[in-house]
User: Fold these one by one.
Assistant:
Number 1:
Amino acid sequence: AQSVTQLDSHVSVSEGTPVLLRCNYSSSYSPSLFWYVQHPNKGLQLLLKYTSAATLVKGINGFEAEFKKSETSFHLTKPSAHMSDAAEYFCVVSEGLTGGGNKLTFGTGTQLKVEL
Amino acid sequence: GAVVSQHPSWVICKSGTSVKIECRSLDFQATTMFWYRQFPKQSLMLMATSNEGSKATYEQGVEKDKFLINHASLTLSTLTVTSAHPEDSSFYICSASRLQETQYFGPGTRLLVL
């Protein structure tokens, strides 16, 4: 069985300061891990994915995440927050290599608020 | 590339009626499509997985007679909510993948049952 825990339901940062959204996972197999972003009343956009290649994954819009097997973590970071980053972020795990045909398990989400 | 559309984006219907939601992969052939449901301020819950030309596989607790899924072609899947009730009001999101590649998500359909 696989599961994902997003440790913070809400994170608030000031514009221009770093962002850290925390995610821990549990999986019986070598997992694939993803971060998706959802803006209000919109679908999900893939930010980045880890599929057993490099442990530091760079995504779109300046986001990156590091896979740490020893800590079962996949935290999302960005050096400098922008107002447009305000959204809901989901950490997702799949037991398949790519998450394509395999079931995705979503975390409960972290609402990121960016203040001036 | 990898664009998934949903239609309609919003639908309001009366209790007891049926509603059909379409999910299309616009620039790739989707061998697998997924349907999710999202309640306000909650995460996405997988409802069912459908492979083109096969019957959908439903998650535990999802009524297959109520949520009819058809995946008749490699670019189209439909979700029909039959005899809709107010508790079916939700945000329905589909995703599509080609072979074993990454899932790409549609923009979602908001259903309100009065």
Note: The CA atoms of residues 48 and 59 of chain A lie 4 Å apart.
Number 2:
Amino acid sequence: AQSVAQPEDQVNVAEGNPLTVKCTYSVSGNPYLFWYVQYPNRGLQFLLKYITGDNLVKGSYGFEAEFNKSQTSFHLKKPSALVSDSALYFCAVRDLSNDYKLSFGAGTTVTVRA
Amino acid sequence: GAVVSQHPSRVICKSGTSVKIECRSLDFQATTMFWYRQFPKQSLMLMATSNEGSKATYEQGVEKDKFLINHASLTLSTLTVTSAHPEDSSFYICSARDPWRENTEAFFGQGTRLTVV
């Protein structure tokens, strides 16, 4: 079965500093990986995905993620964080036994202080 | 990107009553939709997979008689919480994926905050 792990419950950074949110995955076969962001009392917004191709994936709002097969990681990054990036971030992997299912990590709360 | 609309965004109901939540795909037809439940500051738990024209597939531990799912059309799935109790209070989120777009991501509704009093 596919799964993802987000080792950090919380990440705190100062505005303007780089932001990294970690994610590792476990899959049999090729991974389909996603990052979503959730603001309070809202649904999930898609940020970016890795299906195949370049290991560095660029997404919405200046975010990017690097797929690292040897380390089975898919860390989310932003070079310069904004206060408005404060939210809950989820890494997810598609269940290859069911093309539509997603398995989510536990989530990482990002707080960017001014 | 594709749009998924969920309604209502917030509902308060009395214990013992039933509540219906709607999930619509606005600009694509979704043969499959998913219903999730999320507790405060926790991850999303998949409750069931809603299949257009057939019975929903429930995850282990989810009571199918309590959480009724109907997917009567290619753009609408409904989740009905029957005989609601305070422990059913939670944030419910639906998602859908355009089956005609290869390797596309799932799109999520805005979520419904259910409070049972």
Note: The two ends of chain A are 41 Å apart (CA to CA).
Number 3:
Amino acid sequence: DAGVIQSPRHEVTEMGQEVTLRCKPISGHDYLFWYRQTMMRGLELLIYFNNNVPIDDSGMPEDRFSAKMPNASFSTLKIQPSEPRDSAVYFCASSPSGARSPLHFGNGTRLTVT
Amino acid sequence: AQSVTQLGSHVSVSEGALVLLRCNYSSSVPPYLFWYVQYPNQGLQLLLKYTTGATLVKGINGFEAEFKKSETSFHLTKPSAHMSDAAEYFCAVTKETSGSRLTFGEGTQLTVNP
């Protein structure tokens, strides 16, 4: 099992540019989560999906953020336009049955917006 | 709403000494409680979890935690620290009844001195 795969590992972009982060969950896991980690705010849940359907997006900061899960093996988190305050490490995680079962995290994407 | 408080953002111990990382939670319903560990430049990994039943839970790498309802605590311990235990540790809570919103504490950075 390859685990949760995220790409890219690092992304440096200029303010105003579009950024797309990608995630491949573990096969058979019905839940997919996007988290953001910063020194100031810690780990924040942005959105999660169940069976490819967005269930709770209340953590998405604003309309500049969007997430999709077109199929069970792929999800994207898009920021358009990006701003310096979006700089953070973004984690994708998957689990077989929600947050009550262990979450399997990817290694994250470190985003720097200049 | 549920919440988690980790006492001490930084804990330093000597190799071979007892490790004690403190976590208190707030939940209006029976909680599911977790400890996750994060090594540098990696995602989080599950150490252990409490759902129901035995209040003393054993996890990987010699760690254990005890659920104390009367104290609303779920402290993490290890009898003898190893250099490889140096990492950041997160306590997390979710509700038993519904939802998949996992709330993380702010994390405790553990340093192990030789």
Note: Chain A has a mean pLDDT of 94.
Number 4:
Amino acid sequence: DAMVIQNPRYQVTQFGKPVTLSCSQTLNHNVMYWYQQKSSQAPKLLFHYYDKDFNNEADTPDNFQSRRPNTSFCFLDIRSPGLGDAAMYLCATSRQAGGQETQYFGPGTRLLVL
Amino acid sequence: GESVGLHLPTLSVQEGDNSIINCAYSNSASDYFIWYKQESGKGPQFIIDIRSNMDKRQGQRVTVLLNKTVKHLSLQIAATQPGDSAVYFCAENLNTGNQFYFGTGTSLTVIP
């Protein structure tokens, strides 16, 4: 029944070592989002894909990249993780774009940077 | 970014009482709002939504009220249960974009 799946649930990486987080969805939704959520803070949108079109938030660091090879999968790549990148990373989907579309979240991947 | 704020960062209620969580938003053009519940270590879970052409919507034990005049949103939980303990976020969306702007969250603790 899982609709938005994130793997792994916990990821440990070393300072500066590239890491990839994955998200998959069984909803066949057109839009996929990546959020960063730090402790006791609200989720912050990093970027989203509408189909194959990539939309980056203006304040998302270049260190964060994303790939969406097909409708079902979306990856978050952190090229050189810093200590400040330790956070929960949330993937979400919505059926369409343009507003008034509910976003459905995955369980998140908690990233620890050593 | 847009500003979506919450009046109270923490709220404690007795089991069985009703809870009210408030949210203020700043953009009068926002036309869709969602309340999410987030338990520790989990992703946000959709609770209820409301569109700007409505002022009230009810779900199972939850009611959302929207006051566009003062740009205020509230979530009411009836007969609060220990399982309702979580952080609650309101999120607003402009019809022109995909972005949801989240408030800072209210931590609800239910006292047995």
Note: The mean pLDDT of chain B is 88.
